[in-house]
Amino acid sequence: MAADYSVGFEPADRLAQDRDSVRKRFWTKLKRVAARLPFVEDLLAAYYCAFDKETPRHVQAALLGAIAYFILPFDFIPDMLPVLGFTDDAAVLATAIRLVANHITEDHRAAARAVLTRGIDNEA
Questions:
Q1: Is 43 within the bounds of a domain?
Q2: Which of 4, 8, 27, 90 is 20 to 30 A from residue 118's alpha carbon, by CA?
């Protein structure tokens, strides 16, 4: 009998299917941890690309999976650990971005920079 290793954990792929939950939980977590994220602009650009209706579905799926991993409360390396806490999130996001980089447009990056200029606390 195979053990269920997802007990107590919400699988990222299931979370990625619920776009509204991803939107809400993304902004909640980002507001809490943005100051500690060296990759916050890339994360925001990926978010805008994932929710852009012009982005192909397979690209949206890849980015939503990476974003879902970021917002999960439990991951491989706990986010509260100094220095190492976000390395797994960064690796997952970097891999997804590398796979779909040609779909993350200058408009997505400009939207990310605009949020950072206005301040994340002023967002959704």
A1: yes
A2: 90
- Amino acid at position 33, single letter: V
Q: How far apart are CA 43 and CA 89, in angstroms?
A: 10
pLDDT tens readout for residues 43-93: 999 999 999 999 999 999 889 988 888 887 654 445 444 445 566 767 778
Answer yes or no: is 84 within a domain: yes
**Residue type at position 16:** A
Q: Report the chain's terminal Cα–Cα distance, integer Å.
A: 44
Full domain range(s) for residue 21: 12-122
Please name the residue ranges forming H helices in the chain: 12-16, 19-33, 40-50, 57-71, 87-100, 106-118
Task: Report d(CA 22, CA 8) in Å as an integer.
Answer: 19
Name the average pLDDT for the chain. Answer: 77
Q: How far apart are CA 78 and CA 38, in angstroms?
A: 16
Domain count for the chain: 1
CA distance 95 to 39: 13
31 inside domain: yes
